[in-house]
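Class prep. Sample record?

___
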Amino acid sequence: MVIVMMSMALTMMFGQVVGGVLLAGLIFGHFGFSMYAGMQIFGFALFIFCIGYQAGPQFLDALLN
């Protein structure tokens, strides 16, 4: 749980949600921290959701026009 809170703090320091989460994950992975498999799956699903939520409207506009 401490790792999750530290990664959230790093994300807020970097400003952008998706880029911050990716960078925080890379930093923690570099230093050998690991999480439960369920948390990893949830984090990956949340990352994919954020990407789709951000790019979805532009993608649909491009398809419809």
In short: DSSP finds three helices and no strands in the chain. Residues 2-64 form one domain. The longest helix spans residues 37-64.
